[in-house]
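Input/output pair, single chain:
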Amino acid sequence: MKLSQKHIILYGALLVSLVSYVLLAYYTERTQYEQLFALVALLFGGYWAIYKYGSQITSLRFWFQTAIIFRCVFLFSTPALSDDYFRFVWDGYIQTEGINPYQDIPFDAASELPLATYEFTLLSERNSLEYFSIYPPVLHTMFVSTSYTSGYNIEVNVMLLKFILLLFEGLTLFLLYRLLQHLMQPPERWFLYAFNPLIIIELIGNLHFEGIMITGLLAT
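Output:
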């Protein structure tokens, strides 16, 4: 079957987007401004093509799977554009040691820890050392659970947290589609969230838990 111009543009956009996400996740540092700008520009070009033609071609199941695959690209990468994840790992770890992150700032908590390599890495790399934890208890539950199961491995801890966030993103994509149906809105509006590069990069790539808040708002 001969491919139409729309198919060629769309599949080209998918390939370019996938390659760009891989390069962004594993081969781009926050100081590589030119490369970062170029990749984000390519991603928004692909985003435009997917939004314009995606709803006209193939099934929603395909697009749901593609949106999840784009997010899965970042699953095994360490966030390069944000260092907030050290705060998540730190808050989870000190609770496994019986320290309350709402009562002790990192400097005070450190005096109760042996400060071996693991603890020293977390303390030296995290920001906001003079502040108490700002994260709600529901997030601390996740931080503690991944700290227990990661075996004092920061990379594994981050991967587990990303996996949790990925599950919430999958639920968000489902809820968003059903909400649009309920409100009788054009189905292509689903693509505005599902394939927005900033959403994918910030939530899964940089491990920011606003994604869980979005799921809660949609569910409500």
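The radius of gyration is 20 Å. The chain has a mean pLDDT of 91.
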